[in-house]
Specification:
Distance between the termini: 20 Å
Structural class: mainly beta
Shape: globular
Strand content: over 45%
CATH topology: Porin
Number of domains: 1
Number of strands: 18
CATH class: Mainly Beta
Length: 318
Amino acid sequence: MAVGPGYRRRLPAAGFFDAHGAWSIKDYKLADASWQLPRVADRRLLIAAQANWIDAPHVAFFGIGNETVSEARSTFLYRTTTVGVSARFQAAPIAAVGARVDYLDITTGEGSTGRAIGLGFSPITTPGLGSSPTYTRTRAFGEIDWRESPGYTTRGGLYRVDWSDYHQQNNGPYSFQRLDAEANQFIPLLRANWVLAFRALTSITTTDTGREVPYYLMPQLGGGSELRGYPSWRFRDRNRLLLTGEYRWRAGQFVDMALFLDAGKVTEHRADLDLDGLNTSYGLGVRFHTPAATVMRIEAARTSTDGLGLVFSFGPSF
């Protein structure tokens, strides 16, 4: 939960400017600004510049791997400044490609509350512990999106592939590449009074010899939409797999109910991204929505290792 000021203005000849800040009840802070230029190429090409600052004073860390335990919880400081330029080309009504280049400055340290990360972990077991690298990050993506709306849909699908290259400045040891692939499918039944929703997500990182992925940039699972019921950032490692199924039904004009099952894992090696040793969560939820956006989502989830968890969110599960 966070509050803060915002400013938006449409400039007829220069595009759209948006700036906002937020301060959460847990002392997390955010400042974000973006400037979108007027669309060109028959309104298919969008070019934008972005700047972002995040101060997260006590991010949870449970260790690396799929077998970590909740009792190992510690915290670390994660502060980032990002400045970049992006381009998105709408090749067809449902197909788009794009690219982005960022300057990314990261500062890490001991968390301000809870057990400090340095008391339970070392640089040998936790790559990047104590580091504060600077990156040039290059990204490219391609997607097919035929959902009714990203915020709320009863039919259609999203299929996306996103590739990133994190190049550390001054020839540091934490350069790596990351590939994310996601597929969402929504199947309406009986005029969309019931909907079957499915999601598959995988993330893979690669490095050259002698390089490593720092723990704070590893793919993770846990939180309100990725292995629900587990705390945020519960599992981290170099690769991840997540599978989700939901049965949704309309309880009212602007209220949906849902039964869901999540199953996922993180692994050090790509060859271990299989269906063995999956962490699972299942539960029941209620969603309040408009025709195009999810306003609030409340869910209770039972996890395979951490017991019962509650989710309060202001966006869709996927």
